[in-house]
Amino acid sequence: MTLLEARNLKKRFGGVQAVAGVDLEVRAGEVVGLIGPNGAGKTTTFNLIAGALLPDEGSVRFLGRDVTRWPAHRRAHLGIARTFQIPQPLAELSVLENVLVPLARAALRRVLPLGPYRRPERIARARELLVRVGLEAHAEQPAGRLPLGMKKRLEVARALALEPRLLLLDEPLAGLTLREAEGILELIAGLREGIGVVLVEHNVRLALGVCDRAVVMDAGRVIAAGPPEAVKRDPRVIRAYLGEEADA
Ligand SMILES: Nc1ncnc2c1ncn2[C@@H]1O[C@H](COP(=O)(O)OP(=O)(O)OP(=O)(O)O)[C@@H](O)[C@H]1O
After folding, report:
1. 139 alpha carbon to ligand 1 midpoint, in Å?
2. Is residue 134 part of a domain?
3. pLDDT tens figures, 181-235
4. What residue numbers bound the domain in which 76 lies?
5. Domain ABC transporter spans what residues (predicted)?
6. Residue 214 forms part of a structural domain
7. In this structure, what are the phi and psi dihedrals at residue 44, rounded to the nearest 5 degrees?
8. Residues 6+ apart with CB under 8 A from 238
9. Which helix or strand (DSSP H or E) is residue 132 part of?
10. What are phi and psi of 232, to 5 degrees?
11. What is the 23 CA–ligand 1 centroid distance (Å)?
């Protein structure tokens, strides 16, 4: 089932054509890697899908509806959740409370009786989400004191609390040690059940290891798209990545 269909997206900032006609489709049950070197236009494309930016041209359809001009919060209500490259937890609150906040928001959206903020079933659900992302042992700690790798896991739990159909992950591996990154990749691989995931990542090798389909961008355009095995052998991808692969 197709969740997201973006067609011919274009976005210009002054003299820079950041996105120059991008098509992107995401189906339920797949992780799509949106890959490309620095400045390729990945973040801009991500923001056009999340609704943080509006395109100059092109369209975004989600669950069969045209959401091209919708603001981010309306898209979130319809089922598009995102994480941020730099995690922004409510630092003074505990890890558990950080998940309770979006759970209360999701209840509000579904017009369920909101009840007290800490109702037992909501706490149970928050704990389940913490188990899912491997943070159950840290539930009572202040979120601000978690190391970066765990803050990124918390971001994922907070996004999952909104019960999204599409989860957008903005460079979840940025700034992590290789070991932390491998842990997050394992977590991402387990997320795809029933939902679509878009993973923005500039490390092509790591991203290709986890995605079902890769969309590779360079200079605002899609230069290759398909299963990771095919994309890896694509001469345009090899050319765009020669420098980067040498350092990776
Ligand atoms: N708000 C903005 N104002 C001006 N130029 C921008 C803005 N956002 C992005 N750009 C420019 O658009 C181009 C694409 O940037 P974008 O951030 O989408 O690339 P990216 O692939 O996500 O790169 P990175 O991995 O470095 O984040 C770059 O040349 C960038 O400088």
Report:
1. 36
2. no
3. 999 999 999 988 889 999 999 888 889 999 999 999 999 999 999 999 999 889 9
4. 2-90+148-247
5. 4-244
6. yes
7. -65, -45
8. 245
9. helix 120-132
10. -60, -35
11. 18
Buried-state track 22-57, b at ≥16 Cβ within 10 A, e below 16: bebbbeeebbbbbbbbeebbbbbbbbbbbbebebee
Ligand 1 centroid – CA 43 distance (Å): 7
pTM confidence score: 0.90
Q: At what angle do helices 148-160 and 178-189 cross, to 10 degrees?
A: 10
Residue 115 located in a structural domain: no
pLDDT digits (tens, 9 = 90+) for 5-44: 999 999 999 999 999 999 999 999 999 999 988 899 999 9
- pLDDT, position 246: 43
- Minimum CA distance residue for ligand 1 atom 2: 13
d(CA 67, CA 86): 26
Distance in angstroms (rounded) separating the CA atoms of residues 163 and 123: 16
Q: Which CATH number goes with the domain that contains 19?
A: 3.40.50.300
Give yes or no for a contact between 59 and 66, defined as CB atoms under 8 angstroms apart. Answer: yes
Whether 135 is covered by a domain: the verdict is no
Q: Which residues line ligand 1 (CB under 6 A)?
A: 13, 16, 18, 36, 38-44, 202
Query: Of all protein residues, whose CA lies closest to atom 8 belonging to ligand 1?
Result: 44
Domain count across the chain: 1
From 13, 47, 84, 170, mutation site for ligand 1 pocket: most ligand atoms within 8 A of C-beta: 13
